[in-house]
């Protein structure tokens, strides 16, 4: 399978992703309504109902199983990009299933339930661990970055920007910095352990766009001086 991504960052109309499948390739698309062009035999696309667990996690009903030889193009809306990630035996990263766009044949999934405290803060119940050998595609809101974890020196990752982290990493929801800094920021994951953490570097773009607009001086001041004002004052 070959994937070509249109990386025209100056285009405000979204991103196009071209999948070229060879004979014997099989890929599962979890957002089939984004497929805008297809070339191949008519029976190369097989839509089916997701199982109940996937329906609940994705808030969707149908997935498409695409086989080769064929080629198709998926369109992503503005603000979203897709990042292919290779999965190998022994991978221990946990992902948010909602951000999964596709996975190749040979990939299996296991669920991990978060603690009640983390569920209440993140509004996320489970994470997914992928095993086997193949590839997945993750939807992001910007470039994907990675940072190596340290056993004792923590790294703080914006909770909404986190993509994946090692299953055995130590996580604590917190804020950091002085009083003003901690009152203004979103919750962060304080993380230690071994392995690599993946996160997206584009989620804050909308906030920057708002800051650059003529938003009203009083409202901007209130965001700064009221504890967590950037969260409650939109």
TrEMBL record:
Gene3D superfamilies: Mitochondrial biogenesis AIM24. Pfam families: AIM24. InterPro entries: AIM24, AIM24_sf, Trp_RNA-bd_attenuator-like_dom. This is AIM24 family protein. It comes from Paenibacillus glacialis.
């Amino acid at each position: 399978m070959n994937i070509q991504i249109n990386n025209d960052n100056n285009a405000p109309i979204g991103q196009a992703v071209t999948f070229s499948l060879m004979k014997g390739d099989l890929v599962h698309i979890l957002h089939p309504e984004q497929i805008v062009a297809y070339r191949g035999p008519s029976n190369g696309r097989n839509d089916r109902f997701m199982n109940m667990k996937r329906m609940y996690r994705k808030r969707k009903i149908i997935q498409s199983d695409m086989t080769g030889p064929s080629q198709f193009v998926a369109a992503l809306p503005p603000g979203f990009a897709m990042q292919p990630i290779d999965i190998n035996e022994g991978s221990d990263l946990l992902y948010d299933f909602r951000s999964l766009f596709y996975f190749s044949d040979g990939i299996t999934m296991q669920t991990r339930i978060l603690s009640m405290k983390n569920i209440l803060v993140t509004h996320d119940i489970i994470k997914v661990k992928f095993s086997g050998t193949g590839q997945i595609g993750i939807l992001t809101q910007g470039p994907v970055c990675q940072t190596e974890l340290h056993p004792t020196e923590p790294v703080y990752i914006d909770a909404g920007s986190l993509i994946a982290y090692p299953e055995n990493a130590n996580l604590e929801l917190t804020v950091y910095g002085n009083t003003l800094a901690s009152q203004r920021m979103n919750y962060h994951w304080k993380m230690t352990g071994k392995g690599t953490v993946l996160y997206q570097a584009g989620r804050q773009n909308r906030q920057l766009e708002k800051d650059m607009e003529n938003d009203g001086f009083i409202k901007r001041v209130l965001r700064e001086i009221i504890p967590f004002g950037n969260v409650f004052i939109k």
